[in-house]
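Researcher: Please predict.
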Amino acid sequence: MSVTLADVIRARQVLHGVVHKTDLVPSQVLSGEGREVYLKSESLQQTGSFKARGAHVRIAGLSKEERARGVIAGSAGNHAQGVALAARHFGVQATIVMPEGAPLAKVAATRELGAKVVLHGGGYDDAYKHAVSLQQETGAVYIHPFTDPLVIAGQGTVGLEIMDDLPDADTVVVPVGGGGLIAGIAVAVKAMSPQTRVVGVEASGAASMRASLLAGRIISLEHSNTIADGIAVKTPGEEAFAICREFVDEIVTVDDDEIAQTILFLLERCKIVTEGAGAVTVAAIMGGKFDCRGKVAAVLSGGNIDVTVISNIIDKGLLKAGRRAKIHTVIEDKPGRLNRVLKVVSECGANVVSVQHDRAHLEAGIGHALLELVLETQDREHVGRVVQALEHQGFRIS
């Protein structure tokens, strides 16, 4: 069954009054150099991602007998919440299988919506296989996150909203995991504006759709490894693949470092909390991965990210950008030596976050102490000036 514009329009009617029409907001900080960037943040949906759309449309289409059997799904987290929310809306029992390492925030939110959560496996594909096994045992209806035509049509309503707000868009850029979101959006966008380019973005550690399109057939990756858990899919959906072959202009990839930097950028400069899967589109724009000229609408697919992950990303992002630095040196264990180091740091305009003075460390030697400083700095050049000043004073820095 192929998904058509009429299917997507019907899906929008089903979703009327259920999901938010998220705004398409111009971004001055990302615009310039011949491009106008608009951000569509699906993190503003009730479940924090676009997945509420397709899940609701699919469950709305169940018969009375099917609803009585309950529903089951495998998910890394966002589809889980969408299914749980829709199931609660229609009074249907839901069981969700999630990877054992799924973000705690997603697990908790799914349970709070009334679903039974089963943790199994190391990633989405393991959870999916276990969910299929449970479905066969229980007879519940399986709600697939990206192969079901009704789900794809539901996700495609994102594309309708983009064209409503920006009918002259030159490019629509979309995150890609299993392919349900980009397939639905591509159907809507290409039907309404054939000249608009549709570009997908995958994490380089889980680029199954790109590999499949290049091969001309569905490719299953042996491994997926990315911080963008929402798009860590080894095998794209068949229906989504077929639609992407027909309507998607290009698939590009971004690596985990680029994703992490973009999460930090969106948080600090755009005031948007975005998970890894949602940040890939902006990462691709910032990295110049495709032709970004003209009016570009970027879908931020969700914002369900653990605060501990955000904390780690902030710490690593600041270190990589040179806005935080860790400096190690060995000093004589005598009065005034530490003060000499701190004076140099102060004169260079850096701020001391923490000091660790370890006289017992084996690297220090007798009569010396290992010193670790964590500094707040302006950029990498500033870090270099601090290191140079310390070395000028005779301190060996590592």
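Model: The first helix runs from residue 5 to 15.
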